[in-house]
Write a structure and sequence with these properties.
Cyclophilin, about 10% helix, two-stranded antiparallel sheet, seven-stranded mixed barrel, alpha+beta
């Protein structure tokens, strides 16, 4: 005899406790604190040194906003970083590569990113912080923190 979910039914779910779940003999513990972090650690990218000192300082000191242009491949930031950089020869990119277009758009590549690109690679997001930026929603803020050693 089958039972179907009806309007108004309440479905229980496992909440973390010290007790193990009777069917799986496991405990569920979710720590989502990292999602509230606005700091994104990043290494200088291969073309970072092509930026002026002012542009480097802007990258490190400015708060950036996640735009609506976001999917599994990349997230674009709303703020622009004006520059005189041109395109580069096609070069490898990885999840976490931060590209800068000649129009000043900042594009952070995510897990499903392409494997090559033609925009200067100004930063490389630390792998531990890639999950943070990937989970950010439009209009949330981030700040880059440069890893120099």
């Amino acid at each position: 005899d089958q039972e179907f979910v009806q309007s108004g039914d309440q479905l229980p779910y496992l909440i973390y406790s010290e007790k193990t779940h009777p069917l799986t003999n496991s405990r569920a513990k979710w720590n989502w604190d990292y999602l509230s972090n606005e700091i994104i650690s990043a290494y200088p990218g291969p073309e970072f040194d092509l930026l002026s000192l002012d542009q480097k300082l802007q990258l490190e000191n400015q708060e950036f906003t996640i735009s609506q242009l976001k999917n599994g491949m990349a997230v674009q930031l709303k703020e622009l970083l004006p520059n005189q950089l041109g395109s580069i020869y096609t070069a490898p990119v990885f999840p976490g590569t931060v590209q800068l277009t000649h129009g000043g758009k900042i594009i952070c590549l995510l897990q499903d990113a392409q494997v090559t690109g033609g925009y200067p690679r100004i930063l490389q997001i630390h792998e531990d912080d890639l999950k943070i930026i990937a989970q950010k929603k439009p209009n949330q803020k981030i700040r880059f923190q440069l890893i120099t050693s």
